TrEMBL record:
Residues 222-370 form the Helicase C-terminal domain. One of its GO terms (biological process) is DNA replication. One of its GO terms (molecular function) is DNA binding. It catalyses: Couples ATP hydrolysis with the unwinding of duplex DNA by translocating in the 3'-5' direction. It is an enzyme of class 5 (isomerase). One of its GO terms (cellular component) is cytoplasm. Keywords: ATP-binding, DNA damage, DNA recombination, DNA repair, DNA-binding, Helicase, Hydrolase, Isomerase, Metal-binding, Nucleotide-binding, Zinc. It comes from Larkinella knui. The gene is recQ. This is DNA helicase RecQ. The chain holds residues 3 to 528 of 736 of the full protein. Its cofactor is Zn(2+); Mg(2+). Belongs to the helicase family. RecQ subfamily. Its EC number is 5.6.2.4. The keyword Zinc applies. The keyword Metal-binding applies.
């Protein structure tokens, strides 16, 4: 139990008010802080803006000694250090940009226990000389921000993050709080395994962003569509994400010649220009930033009214993060993606030089993205299902809900698909199951002897195509009849609901997929 002394409870509330100026804790904040103060490992999974930072800042202030905060970006560290200092709290960061004098001040304040929060990047943490002095210090606990960087299944993998556990053990026996705004069940498991915190208390809040409207359009004549869309949202703040620096420049230019105030942002610009363009956006000197995904982390503009993906993103995690920058004030937020299979082919080419494992991972993530674009299922249900959140209703507020694709009834097809899952011992993904059902001949089918199964080729009686069966299997997964195996990515198992269904099947309404290629041609003819 994490029952704390009532006097501690009161004193935490007072600090919340006196230091941060907040009269109430939000969501699970108080419980998380109690947990940390009781020395229990905590795992916090909450969307951006939920108030994760307070979950380690306040206990750090309330504890003796120094809390270590591991953070991937200098900009993020600097923001927090400035904020804490403005509140009168001694917080500092440790990185290679510090002068000798600054460095010795950090060390002195840590060793004499006046420093409450020490921000550090994993790369600095691994340095011998830093480790030596941290071992001598009185460390209260370790916070790991952006913990998804540990996982190759996340959207910004940082190899150094994988060394964190070893380093913590080297410093001492310390409680850990890991925090992230993106965790699919797969990433969540990776984080827990890697940090050896399977025992941690998990605090997870819903990833549903109710005010965001999700929409995908075929990428035909996208430049014209883009200009029209932004003009229809005149004076509103928005972000346009592109895949390459070159495209960023081109689109920013295009918008400018069309009387839309826009600036580019990407890692190829010098830091002064980046800073200037970012400030111009925050101060509303320009309406639109055209950016690569380098733009956004740590940027807190509450009234971004639209986020446009001019090019398809690499993963649904990235997509969720990027669209999440719209409507942070809870008001209007429009998320529009232009989709074309050509972009997917391009993205696949980027993976060419990666190792086999990395390429397979990247491909899986991309295929989830493709499936999201193609399915006619409520976008929100799809997204939330990806994050392990089951919804039993359509949202009514996405393009698939408002402009539905053609529907059809299925029952015998679903029974057959579930039987295929069982007959293959619940060890395969949607694509392989579709191959089994359509009686496809390939090396996997042969090597597993799946051509001998009763269900092999049985799907042909209903529909010939692999795409049909893939889509059906993905839909019934979102609807909870199948569960994804978290340990083996993409592998599907029968859920209890699926089991019940087989015992007593009924007819379900499913959606036909989008066909963006045909839609593109139509749009071009217009
Ligand atoms: P996250 O790290 O989850 O993205 P932040 O820690 O940056 O979120 O917090 C988002 C915003 O919410 C910040 O402006 C923060 O000051 C504010 N906030 C955090 N906790 C509270 C609270 N208890 N009451 C009011 N505002 C809060
Ligand atoms: Zn919907």
């Amino acid at each position: 139990t994490t029952q704390l002394d009532p006097s501690v409870q009161v004193s935490l509330k007072e600090k919340l008010k006196d230091i941060f100026g907040f009269s109430q804790f939000r969501g699970d904040q108080e419980a998380i802080i109690h947990n940390i103060l009781a020395g229990i490992n905590s795992f916090v999974i909450m969307p951006t803006g939920a108030g994760k930072s307070l979950c380690y800042q306040l206990p750090a202030i309330s504890s003796e000694g120094t809390a270590i905060v591991i953070s991937p970006l200098i900009a993020l560290m600097k923001n927090q250090v400035d904020q804490m200092n403005a509140f009168g709290i001694n917080a500092q960061f440790l990185n290679s940009t510090l002068t000798k004098a600054e460095m010795s001040k950090v060390k002195k304040d840590t060793l004499n226990g006046t420093l409450k929060l020490l921000y550090i990047a994993p790369e600095s943490l691994t340095k011998e000389e830093n480790l030596d002095f941290l071992k001598k210090a009185n460390i209260s606990f370790v916070a790991i921000d952006e913990a998804h960087c540990i996982s190759e299944w996340g959207h910004d993998f940082r190899p150094e993050y994988r060394k964190i556990r070893g380093i913590i053990d080297n410093i001492g026996n310390l409680p850990v709080i890991a925090l992230t705004a993106t965790a699919t069940p797969k990433v969540q498991l990776d984080i827990q395994k890697n940090l050896q915190m399977e025992d941690a208390h998990i605090y997870k809040t819903s990833f549903n962003r109710k005010n965001l409207y999700y929409e995908i359009r075929p990428k035909a004549d996208a430049k014209k569509q883009l200009i029209r869309y932004i003009k229809n949202n005149k004076g509103k703040s928005g972000i346009v994400y592109c895949l390459s620096r070159k495209m960023v420049e081109e689109i920013a230019e295009l918008l400018n010649v069309n009387d839309i105030k826009a600036l580019p942002y990407h890692a190829g610009l010098d830091s002064q220009t980046r800073m200037h363009n970012q400030d111009a956006f925050l101060n509303e000197d320009v309406d639109v930033v055209v950016a690569t995904i380098a733009f956004g982390m740590g940027i807190d503009k509450p009234d971004v009214r639209f986020v446009i993906h001019y090019d398809a993103p690499k993963s649904l995690e990235g997509y969720y993060q990027e669209t999440g920058r719209a409507g942070r004030d809870g008001l209007e937020g429009n998320c529009l993606m232009f989709y074309s299979i050509d972009d997917i082919v391009k993205l696949e080419k980027f993976n060419k030089d990666k190792s086999v494992t990395e390429r397979d991972n990247a491909r899986h993530l991309l295929m989830e993205m493709v499936s999201y674009a193609n399915l006619g299922v409520c976008r929100r249900r799809q997204l939330l299902s990806y994050f392990g959140e089951y919804q039993d209703k359509d949202c009514g507020f996405c393009d698939n809900c408002m402009k539905p694709t053609e529907k059809f009834k299925a029952q015998d097809e679903i029974v057959l698909a579930l039987q295929a899952v069982l007959q293959t011992d619940q060890r395969f993904d949607a694509a392989h199951l579709a191959d089994v059902l359509t009686g496809t001949e390939n090396q996997y089918i042969t090597s597993y002897e799946h051509h001998n199964l009763a269900v092999y080729g049985k799907g042909k009686e209903f529909n010939e195509t692999v795409e049909f069966w893939c889509s059906l299997i993905r839909q019934i997964t979102i609807y909870g009849y199948l569960d994804k195996d978290v340990d083996n990515y993409g592998v599907l198992k029968l859920s209890q609901k699926g089991q019940n269904y087989l015992n007593d099947p009924y007819s379900i309404t499913l959606s036909k997929d989008h066909n963006y290629e045909i839609d593109e041609e139509k749009a071009e003819d217009e």
